[in-house]
Amino acid sequence: MFKINEYFNGNVKSISLKDAESTASIGVMAVGNYEFGTSTKEIMKVISGSMIVKLPDSNDWQTFGPGQTFQISANMRFFLKIQQVSTYFCQYITE
Fold this sequence. Notes:
This protein is 0% helix and 62% strand. The chain has no helices and ten strands. It is globular and about 35 Å long.
């Protein structure tokens, strides 16, 4: 089934899908700085724009563009700097 999500006063919006095989979301982020937490492993793929990401246990910021992916383990926090409207696809992995 579909679920609409909205975060950070509407600056991040997504539609999530959960079925018998997987859980995923596709969304859009407005310009801004964001902090997210995970409850499962997440694989994030940038569709358009770019994301400057500070992954858990890292002091460095990395830039990911269209077609690139990054992973975050379960129960972690990560930071994003969005400098242009960007879209993403996120898979939630339960192991």
